[in-house]
Structure formats: C-alpha cells, structure tokens
Design brief:
By secondary structure, this protein is of the alpha+beta class. The protein contains 15 helices and 10 strands. The N terminus is likely disordered. Keywords: Signal.
Length: about 350
C-alpha cells in the first residue's frame, strides 16, 4: 500500500473541516444569548490586557475586531509562506477573481417551515419565534464562540456538506458582507486541535450540566481555547485568499508518492479551467465513501471554510433551493412554496 505522511492525513482532516455526526438536541439548554464571535473577541481583548475594559462588546465592535484579526492572520500567512513560487502566485491571482460558492443545507423536513417564515434562522432566532428545527449546532460551539447566534454555510464546496441535510440552498455572494469564517467547525477544533473529548463535553451540555471550570480538567473550556480559536477567524474580504493559502500548504506537503503527484496535477489544472464550477469542483472534490486511503489522500480538498453569519437569512438572499428529485413534487405542492416556485428545483444526482 502506498504510504502517505501523518502531515498529509492531518491536512486532509483540517481542510475538510470534518465535523461529527451527532446532532445537538433541540431541547439542549441555552444560557443568555451570546453574540456570534463575542466570546473569542472577549478572549483576545483580555489577552492584550487582563484588566477589565468596562465596555460591552457590541456587534459593531466584534465585526471591527474580526476584520483586524483577519488582516493580521493574512499578513502572517504571507510572511510564513514567502517566497511564493510562480505557480502559487498564479493560483492566488486566479482565485481572487472567482467567488467561492456559499451553500447551506438543511433537512427536507425543515424546508416547509423555512419557506413559511421566509428566512433561515439561527438557533436563538428560532427559539424567539417558536420554531424548532432539526439541528446540528452543538451547545459546545455556543460555549466556544456564540454559535447559537449564527446561521451557517460552507464556503468552497460546490454543493455544501451533505451531513447537514438533503436540501441544498445556494446563497448570493453578497451574504459574505455579514459573515466571518474559520477553516473548520468548533467541534473539530476542540477534538482535533485542542485534543479534548468534544463528544463527552457536548453530552454534559445536552444533559443541562455546566462544563467544569477548573482549567486542569480535560472537559473544561476556557480562555486558552477561545484565544486559540480566535486566531482562525477570517473575515469575508479574505475568504478567497485564505482558501488559496490553504491550497498552497496542501501542495507543499504533498509527498513524492502517487497520491502526492495527483495532488500536484490537480493543482496545475486549477490554473487552466475556464469556469467557476470547474474550478471549485477541482478545488474541493466530491466526497465518496469506501475509497482506499491513498485515493482519499489524492482527493484531499485544497481548502475549506465554515461561514458564520448574523442570526438570519432572508429568502431574498437565496438563488436556488435544490431538493431530492423524488420529493420535488411534494415541495412544489406546499402552499408555503407558491411564492418561491422559481427557486425550487430537483437536486442533481
């Protein structure tokens, strides 16, 4: 069997932004509403001076901090990756002109409520208006960065992530003006980056219990976790550049194996494809089950971002809603769908 490095396997996990297949129960207890990004912005503020600032972090100041933090992160990438090869510079120039697909997915069982309310909503917003949808927003992520105040979408994968449901909802590129992103989910960060038992931590929160406060307890979540996570924040104007830098790291870490050579070939093809769809299909290949390890390594995504947005999307921000073909007739028959028939079509097989 072909060998491939631990580094490459780690890159595969990180680039995919792998989440975990459990779902946070709709009954999970929630604390006072926390603005999305608020906990990690507060951690960064404490890191520069531990004395209290005596000023509330409102949505505007959090957004300003995200832009500053993202700019610093991009500057660090530029420093640590320099010098870029001619090939890498070509990718950077090309990707900046090709907006990444922004896609959210949900379960067909939830689509009717979304059409009725003419919006996709965060967990907090749904609680406020009395909706209860099937959720994949873990309470642990709310503890980490205020996830219950966010609506999520993938940035890069042409059809989003199937784990979140069988309905594809494509969003206008302009929604990025209200978003920020990280290269993986909070659950993946806790489990694979911080090496903590994210599953057990999530189970405690679902049971209505608090996480331990002793920082030496492996199930605690605190300042160091939030400070670390804050360094992955990428604001909307840097999304494509961040994806390019991820791709460059994947290319540089590809070894002299068959899988590594296939990665290099795919990188070269990115520079020659003519359409955005072709570009992103190469950048993040569709996932397939049952592939041997070397083929999995060859199909490593070049990058991934999980977008986090303010607490709701109006359906005016949606360009298409794609449902399983066998459910299309049912969806089109709903009274709630009649104002949106132009958006709804069958999903590609």
């Amino acid at each position: 069997m072909l060998k491939y490095s631990l580094t490459l396997r780690l890159l595969y996990t990180i680039s995919l932004g792998l989440l975990f297949p459990w779902q946070a129960e709709s009954q999970q207890s929630i604390s006072d509403p926390e603005l999305g990004g608020g906990p990690i912005a507060a951690a960064r503020r404490t890191a520069i001076d531990a004395r209290p600032f005596h000023r509330e972090l409102d949505a505007g100041s959090i957004r300003k901090w995200m832009k500053i933090s993202s700019k610093c992160t991009m500057a660090e990438f530029e420093l640590f990756l320099a010098p870029l090869t001619e090939l890498e510079q070509e990718l950077l120039a090309k990707i900046e002109s090709i907006p990444a697909p922004i896609v959210t997915r949900l379960h067909f069982e939830d689509l009717r409520a979304v059409l009725k309310n003419k919006q996709l909503s965060s967990y907090y917003e749904e609680e406020r208006i009395g909706k209860h949808l099937i959720h994949t927003t873990p309470a642990l992520e709310n503890e980490l960065y205020g996830a219950f105040d966010c609506v999520f979408a993938s940035v890069g994968p042409p059809d989003g992530s199937p784990r979140y449901g069988d309905v594809i909802i494509r969003l206008r590129d302009s929604v990025r003006e209200h978003g920020w992103a990280t290269p993986f989910s909070g659950m993946h960060f806790i489990y694979s980056i911080r090496h903590q038992d994210a599953r057990k931590m999530q189970q405690l929160l679902i049971a209505g219990k608090n996480l331990p406060t002793d920082p030496t307890n492996p199930l605690s979540l605190g300042f160091d976790d939030r400070l670390h996570f804050s360094h992955y924040v990428v604001s909307e104007n840097h999304w494509n550049r961040a994806l390019a830098y991820q791709a460059i790291l994947v290319l540089r870490n590809a070894e002299d194996t068959l899988a590594g050579k296939q990665i290099q070939e795919r990188f070269h093809k990115l520079l020659t494809v003519k359409t955005p769809d072709s570009f992103w299909e190469l950048f993040i290949p569709a996932r397939e089950k049952g592939l041997p390890p070397e083929e999995m390594a060859a199909r490593i995504p070049f990058g991934y971002l999980e977008g986090k947005f303010e607490n709701q999307f109006s359906l005016e921000e949606v360009t298409a809603i794609e449902v399983p073909s066998e459910k299309l007739k049912e969806a089109l028959s709903w009274p709630e769908a009649q104002d949106h028939l132009g958006l709804i079509s069958a999903k590609r097989d």
